[in-house]
Amino acid sequence: MKKEKAVMRVITGSARGRRLLELEGMETRPTTDRVKEGVFSALQFEIEGRRVLDLFAGTGQMGIECLSRGAAFAVFVDRRKDAAELVRKNLALTELADRGRVVNGDSMEFLAGTREGFDLVFLDPPYVSGLLEQALPRLTAPGFDILNPYGIIVAEHPADRVPPSPAHCRLQRSYRYGKIAVTIFRREGTDGNNEGSAHENSHLLRQL
Questions:
Q1: What three-state secondary structure class fits 109?
Q2: Checking CA distances to 106, which of 3, 54, 139, 174 falls within 20 to 30 Å?
Q3: How far apart (Å, rounded) are the C-alpha atoms in residues 42 and 37?
């Protein structure tokens, strides 16, 4: 018997239960329901009124979930034209388009050019692309520095490679879901440098 494909929906909030459209093909890898539920369980008190960046947006489901839960605004960035168009459609389906902006362009170029500040940033690029390692340090680096004080970064990555903390951030927790892990970093403020190596942070990996 052919296994039925899971339907991607908004978990809770104003758009609760709304089905989201998905992209065809393997280039875009949507975050699984188990991972998504775990992430938002950890973030449930960190979303309302916040400005969100969904940097490698794909379907836009992470930023849309935030908007459904009361985030003030979300920016979605994806280099694929079909992905950017899909995010626009999903924002329309969930009636959240008035609080979202979609950028069809390169994520690194967006980081270099934007002057906006964000409270919550989602990073889930293709695992073998090296883009996570490029994007993480830029979020708090001089000349970029778009993560607001006490802001949060959520990074999805292979479970065997915990990324190092960006400058001025500490690793709050890593959650493991089989071969996938999600690491949450929190910025402590604008003074000091709380960088840590992947080795130093590895003891915080929690298996779920």
A1: helix
A2: 174
A3: 9
